[in-house]
UniProtKB/TrEMBL annotation:
Pfam families: FAD_binding_2, Succ_DH_flav_C. Residues 35-471 form the FAD-dependent oxidoreductase 2 FAD-binding domain. The lineage of its organism: Bacteria, Pseudomonadati, Bacteroidota, Flavobacteriia, Flavobacteriales. Its EC number is 1.3.5.1. InterPro entries: FAD-dep_OxRdtase_2_FAD-bd, FAD/NAD-bd_sf, Fum_R/Succ_DH_flav-like_C_sf, Fum_Rdtase/Succ_DH_flav-like_C, SdhA/FrdA/AprA, Succ_DH/Fum_Rdt_flav_su, Succ_DH/fumarate_Rdtase_cat_sf. This is succinate dehydrogenase.
């Protein structure tokens, strides 16, 4: 199979404009003749369904939640990037493009990233028009804050709930189209297979999660916008329902899966507190604007803190190691996520961790300096040039509450500690997946008519995503890319007519799904689904996590293959197929996670370099930074399914070419 990325010719800055100008169109009177299925209603799916419905297409939208408002996009807290340069601090489309390529450790497709930067400003205008309540400065202008991996302020935000507010904006646009009858919403439905007719995507098989009914749905094109696969690790910041099933099912039907080993470990999550925990909680990266990250300089202080004999507030300033500021003075606490995560791991591995859990893993995120700084500024602004210490502290806390109040409340409810008074405890956790289904410049997979948007595709972030870029990519794909590129494909479908669900292809796909369900329900095993999911998670975190090496990856591949065998032999799924059955849902999803986990380890093993979130311990420089091999690994690794034995998957390479960017070692010092 030869990969054709369909990147347009011409200068980088003109590619998207010229490409749009030459794409085929579907006339408004022909759009009602065409059906489109959208799987997933997070930011990418909801914005795509709303846009395509407004254009006049017949859209069927599917989500496994009870409402699109429950999509995991709501969990994105800190903000959304856009190159508007409102702060007049040197930002530009090129700067956003460059930061994104560099942040991804030079492993992203240049043309896609430049397009993302180009349309970023339009996203903000669109969302403001929808009524998204972005934070504003005193004069009424939209406010910005900094995020990791940049030296400008380009992140637009709505307190600490940006994702939720953006999703409500997209949901309102979607709801309008539902009300007009252009979008039909299928809540509590899960896609379990894709249907191909004559090689083209022509529909899906979905399960009604309430009744258990297996349904056939046809369309002229299918959009997969089902999010990422972080829950392969069991413990992650993802919603517990987040899964890879839609992406994995299309992979098994011919869509290549690209860069599965590129996983982002987010540096600011609440540490694991026990073995029975089922989910981790993200504390927004925006907090790194105001918090300083540290551990004690002395191991005996760290040991005393873990033993409960010492409080962090009792550690003198000179006895604190602000290790990010020490190692990366140019960016300090705002280095990219992969850099910050590895630095935290290094300190904890060296014995300086502060959390009294099984692993002693945790560092502090301290707001005391910001409270004093902002408190003094607030006092001066009020005309008080000689404020007392108490006044400064009170005003500083008030400033923090206005910026991050809901995040501080959430932290206190989970940990029973007041972050205004004592530093937050944080540690890296699995958060986002840069890998995903391979797509070309038009966001089309290797299955004609099957498009993939948002986190479900691989396209824009390389080996590491910069903070606040996930929301940007999801909305860019849904509002400003897919409406053009999918229309180009559908222009040849005007005369196709209604797609029948009575064809042999639909019958075969439905039979596959029913057979899989039947096998699980009749298995009579002795172990729960979670038993196997946790085992998979431990293998993944310990051997395909923040640090990877050849021996560990080979062990992981063998262990996951054995786990797959044990899973099918001994998993027990109670209940029946014709009812609400959460254990059955989990079993179907974990079956896909197990296969994906093996592929992730295979991908990490073949990539003999360190880049972004993929850190091979054998490939690091003298200071412990990533050591890329641009001569041999400057490619997208896209895997082709070759049957039930995942070890037989075939690797295809898309060479990455850089016209505008000069590749260099990443330096945030």
């Amino acid at each position: 199979m030869k990969l054709d990325s369909k990147i347009p010719a011409g200068p980088l800055k003109d590619k998207w404009t010229d490409h749009k100008n030459h794409l085929k169109l579907v006339a408004p009177n022909n759009r009602p003749k065409i059906d489109i299925i959208v799987v997933g209603t997070g930011l990418a799916g909801a914005s795509a369904a709303a846009s395509l419905g407004e254009m006049g297409y017949n859209v069927k939208a599917f989500c496994f939640q009870d409402s699109p408002r429950r999509a995991h996009s709501i969990a994105a807290q800190g903000g959304i990037n856009a190159a508007k340069n409102y702060q007049n601090d040197g930002d530009s489309v090129y700067r956003l493009f460059y930061d994104t390529i560099k942040g991804g450790d030079y492993r992203a497709r240049e043309a896609n990233v430049h397009r993302l930067a180009e349309v970023s400003g339009n996203i903000i205008d669109q969302c403001v028009a929808q009524g998204v309540p972005f934070a504003r400065e005193y004069g009424g202008m939209l406010d910005n804050r900094s995020f990791g991996g940049t030296q400008v302020q380009r992140t637009f935000y709505a307190a600490g709930q940006t994702g939720q507010q953006l999703l409500l904006g997209a949901y309102s646009a979607l709801s309008r189209q539902i009300g007009l009858g252009r979008v039909k919403m299928y809540n509590r439905h899960e896609m379990l297979d894709i249907v191909k007719v004559d090689g083209k995507a022509r529909g899906i098989i979905a399960r009604n999660l309430i009744t258990g009914e297996i349904e056939r749905h046809s369309a002229h094109a299918v959009v997969i916008a089902s999010g990422g696969y972080g829950n392969v690790y069991f413990l992650s910041t993802n919603a517990m329902g987040s899964n890879v099933t839609a992406g994995w099912k299309i992979h098994k039907q011919g869509a290549l899966f690209a860069n599965p080993c590129y996983v982002q470990i987010h540096p600011t999550c609440i540490p694991v507190h026990g073995t029975n925990q089922s989910k981790l909680t993200l504390m927004s990266e925006s907090l790194r604007n105001s918090g300083r990250i540290w551990v004690p300089k002395k191991k005996e202080d760290a040991e005393a803190i873990r033993a409960g004999k010492l409080k962090p507030t009792q550690i003198a300033e000179e006895d604190r190691d602000y290790y990010l500021e020490r190692r990366y003075p140019a960016f300090g606490n705002l280095v990219p996520r992969d850099v910050a995560s590895r630095a935290a791991k290094e300190r904890c591995d060296a014995g300086y961790g502060i959390e009294a859990n099984d692993t002693n893993e945790g560092v502090y995120l301290d707001f005391s300096t910001e409270i004093q700084t902002k408190g003094k500024q607030a006092a001066y602004a009020k005309g008080n040039h000689n404020p007392t210490a108490e006044e400064i502290t009170a005003l500083g806390k008030q400033w923090l509450e206005e910026k991050y109040g809901n995040l501080f409340t959430m932290y206190q409810k989970i940990t029973d500690e007041n972050p205004y008074e004592t530093p937050m405890k944080i540690y890296p956790a699995v958060h986002y997946t840069m890998g995903g289904v391979w797509v070309d410049y038009n966001l089309q997979s290797t299955i004609p008519g099957c498009f993939v948007a948002g986190e479900a595709n691989f396209s824009d972030h390389g080996a590491n995503r910069l903070g606040a870029s996930a929301l940007m990519q999801g909305l860019a794909d849904g509002y400003f890319v897919l409406p053009y590129t999918i229309s180009n494909y559908l222009a040849d479908e005007i005369r196709t007519g209604k797609i029948s669900t009575d064809s042999p292809e639909f019958a075969e796909a439905e039979a596959r799904v029913k057979d899989s369900i039947s096998k699980f329900l009749n298995n009579n095993g002795s172990k729960s689904v979670d038993y196997f999911h946790k085992k998979l998670g431990l293998i993944m975190w310990n051997k395909v996590g923040m640090g990877r090496n050849e021996a560990g990856l080979k062990e992981a591949i063998a262990e996951i293959a054995q786990l797959k065998e044990d899973f099918y032999k001994d998993v027990y799924v109670p209940g029946s197929a014709d009812e609400l059955n959460p254990e059955l849902e989990k079993a179907l999803r974990v079956a896909d996670f197990i296969e994906l986990g093996q592929l992730m380890a295979m991908d990490a093993l073949q990539r003999k370099e360190s880049c972004g979130g993929h850190f091979r311990e054998e490939y690091q420089d003298a200071e412990g930074e990533t050591l890329r091999d641009d001569e041999n690994f400057k490619f997208v690794g896209a895997w082709e399914y070759k049957g039930d034995d995942i070890s037989k998957e075939e690797l295809h390479k898309e060479e990455l070419k850089y016209e505008e960017i000069k590749i260099a070692a990443r330096n945030y010092k």
